[in-house]
Amino acid sequence: MKIAVVVSEFNQEVTSRMLLVVQEKAKQLKVKISFICEVPGAYDMPIIVDSLLQKKNVDGVVTLGAIIKGQTKHDEVIAHSTASALTELSLKYKKPVSLGITGPGMKERQAFARIRPVSERAVEAILKIKKELDRIKNDST
């Protein structure tokens, strides 16, 4: 299986560590990472994810980001619009896109606490969804 990873540069202290965990987990699960793309923030991910899902050598995309609460509700707008766009892309291309983006409403310490579990689950989710899609596709009944 070949995946791509799209990682946000915003809150890079968190997201760079998330990327390391994803690389470690992919290696452990014998998953090849075909592309690693960096974007300024989570909101910027959908256009890159769209391009990656069009590639034949990409079976799914892991997204990584940390949307930390500020003084306004901007984090909620970013999180909801990004999740919605990524869901639409997954459905459009019939390929899994995992939401390894933490937040909204999260404080910085919470973001650090979620690095490993969220990153590992993002890779595992791609594998499970792809496996189920293949099973459904190959079922002759």
CATH class: Alpha Beta
Q: How many β strands by DSSP?
A: 4
- Total tally of structural domains: 1
Largest sheet: 4 strands, parallel
Structure class? alpha/beta
Order of helices and strands: EHEHEHEHH
Oligomeric nature of the chains: single chain
Strand content: 15-25%
Unreliably modeled segments: none
Q: Strands of the largest sheet, in order across it? A: 2-1-3-4
**Count, helices:** 5
CATH topology: Rossmann fold
Estimate the mean pLDDT confidence.
96
CATH superfamily: Lumazine/riboflavin synthase
Cα-to-Cα separation, first versus last residue:
25 Å
Tell me roughly what share of residues is in helical segments: 40-55%
The Rg value, from CA coordinates, equals: 15 Å
- Going by CATH, the architecture would be 3-Layer(aba) Sandwich
Overall body shape: globular
Summarize the model shown.
It is built from 5 helices and 4 strands. By secondary structure, the protein is of the alpha/beta class.
